[in-house]
C-alpha cells in the first residue's frame, strides 16, 4: 500500500511524494455497522515537511465538537453521486451536526458515541464516493475520518454525513505513536 503526499492534482507528478506504508486496522472494526472505522498508516520511510507536505494536529483530548462548528472535509472522490473521482483535491466547508439530531434523522442506523456527523442535509454538501478515510478538519485539527453517507447520495444528501471521531481513539493511537516511529502523527 502506498500514499501520495503533497499532491493537489494527482494527474501532475511534480512536487508529490509516493511512500509505502504499513497499516493497522482498529481491532474492533465492524464492516457491517462501520463502527470503529479507523486505520493507522505508518510510513516505511522518513518524509520531510515541505511547502506541499505538512503535518496536521490530532485532538489533545477526547472531546465532542460543538454543533454548528464550521469544519472542512477534503478528498479526491467523486463530485456527484455515481460520478468519477476527481484528479484535483476537493475541499468543502460543512457544519457539525448534534449527535442526537443526527441519530434521530438516521433512525434505525446506530450513530454511536465514536461517530460524529457533519454536512449532508443542512449544508447540501459533504463527501462522496472515493473520499473514505479523508479528514474532517476543525480549527486546524483532524477531528474526524470520512466513514459513510446515506445510500451513496452525495449530489443531494438528505441525511448528515457520518465520520469516525478521532478523539475517541486517542489511547489506541497514542499506543502506536509511543511504541513505533509513526512520526507523521506526532504533534
UniProtKB/TrEMBL annotation:
GO BP terms, alphabetized: proteolysis
SMART domains: Tryp_SPc
UniProt keyword terms in alphabetical order: Disulfide bond, Hydrolase, Protease, Serine protease
Domain Peptidase S1 intervals: 1-178
Pfam families the UniProt entry points to: Trypsin
MF (Gene Ontology): serine-type endopeptidase activity
Family, as annotated: Belongs to the peptidase S1 family. Snake venom subfamily.
Protein's UniProt name: Peptidase S1 domain-containing protein
